[in-house]
């Protein structure tokens, strides 16, 4: 479960699914002698950044599982904001359940399924007052997992973390303008107050993943939007 706002409303469900679920998985792995794990982490663990762009050694919340750190060969991948779709279209930005992420929302406004986009916060200290994120194609995330597993097979790392991002910070308004330019759809929007739990600016320094995993994001924002236009 991964929606910041929802987690503020239903914290116990988040603890149950994400924490207890992981413990169950790790127990099952131990019982079956599986010792390689790629963990789907999130840039949100950095909290309000002390510096930008964020490197993997930026302070995070306390990691409590010493057993995991010493016994397991783990890579933790810190996703920035995943967007886009698998080329088949079977996984992508057309959610079947309620959602809160910006990209599917913009998609639905473009298709006139929603009247307008609501922008959460227009008075942030950013280039145009809206929140800044690092939007990374899901297929780049997928290739990051393959690189991580390959690396784990060759090295005992104990526990190592990598940022998976493009390094490019894009504001909500810049995203809307780029979407309009590339898809030729119109995206009306309305400014709303800031969303509880949101961070102002987030974008990655992903140089460690390039150096050690040989991975880097291949898709630019324009590539992603061109695919969506198709
Ligand atoms: C968060 C996590 C990210 C995680 C993602 C999964 C942070 C910094 N990032 O992304 O690591 O992968 O959840 O869901 O906590 N916005 C609007 N209107 C909307 C929706 C969003 O203006 O209708 C704005 C948000 O305020 C934000 C940006 O668009 O500035 C992106 O929001 P969203 O797509 O919901 O993802 P995050 O909350 O950034």
From TrEMBL:
Listed InterPro entries: NAD(P)-bd_dom, NAD(P)-bd_dom_sf, UDP_G4E
Gene Ontology terms: biological process: galactose catabolic process via UDP-galactose, Leloir pathway
GO cellular component: cytosol
Every NAD(P)-binding domain range: 2-228
Molecular function (Gene Ontology), one example: UDP-glucose 4-epimerase activity
Reactions catalysed according to its record: UDP-N-acetyl-alpha-D-glucosamine = UDP-N-acetyl-alpha-D-galactosamine
The protein's required cofactors: NAD(+)
Keywords: Carbohydrate metabolism, Galactose metabolism, Isomerase, NAD
Enzyme Commission code: 5.1.3.7
Enzyme class at the top of the EC tree: isomerase
Pfam families: GDP_Man_Dehyd
Superkingdom of this protein's organism: Eukaryota
Stated role: Catalyzes two distinct but analogous reactions: the reversible epimerization of UDP-glucose to UDP-galactose and the reversible epimerization of UDP-N-acetylglucosamine to UDP-N-acetylgalactosamine. The reaction with UDP-Gal plays a critical role in the Leloir pathway of galactose catabolism in which galactose is converted to the glycolytic intermediate glucose 6-phosphate. It contributes to the catabolism of dietary galactose and enables the endogenous biosynthesis of both UDP-Gal and UDP-GalNAc when exogenous sources are limited.
Protein name listed in UniProt: UDP-N-acetylglucosamine 4-epimerase
Organism name: Armadillidium nasatum
């Amino acid at each position: 479960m991964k929606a910041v706002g929802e987690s503020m409303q239903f914290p116990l469900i988040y603890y149950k699914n994400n924490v207890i679920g992981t413990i169950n998985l790790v127990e099952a792995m131990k019982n079956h002698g599986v010792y390689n794990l790629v963990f789907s982490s999130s840039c949100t663990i950095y909290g309000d950044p002390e510096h930008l762009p964020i490197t993997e050694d930026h302070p995070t919340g306390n990691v409590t599982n010493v057993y995991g750190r010493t016994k397991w060969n783990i890579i933790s991948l810190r996703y920035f904001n995943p967007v886009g779709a698998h080329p088949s279209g079977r996984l992508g930005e057309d959610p079947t359940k309620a959602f809160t992420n910006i990209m599917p929302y913009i998609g639905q406004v473009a298709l006139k399924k929603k009247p307008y986009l609501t922008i959460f916060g227009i008075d942030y200290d950013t280039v145009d007052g809206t929140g800044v994120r690092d939007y990374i194609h899901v297929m780049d995330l997928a290739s990051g997992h393959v690189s991580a597993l390959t690396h784990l097979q060759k090295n005992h790392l104990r526990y190592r973390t990598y940022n998976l991002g493009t390094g490019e910070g894009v504001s909500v308004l810049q995203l809307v303008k780029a979407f309009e330019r590339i898809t030729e759809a119109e995206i009306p929007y309305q400014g709303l107050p800031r969303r509880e739990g949101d961070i102002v600016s987030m974008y990655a320094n992903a140089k460690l993943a390039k150096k050690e995993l040989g991975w880097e994001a291949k898709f630019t924002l324009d590539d992603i939007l061109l695919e969506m236009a198709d």
